[in-house]
Amino acid sequence: MKALITRKVGMTSTINEDGTVQAVTLLSASPCVITQVKTDATDGYTAVQVGAEEAKENKVGKSLAGHMKASGTNSKILREFRVDEITEDLKVGSKLAADVFEVGDTVQVTGTSKGKGWAGTIKRHNFHRGRKTHGGRSYRRVGSIGSMYPQHIFKGKKMAGHMGHEQVSVNNLKVAFVDAEQNIIAVTGAVPGPRKGIVIIKEAK
Question: How many domains does the chain have?
Answer without folding.
Answer: 1
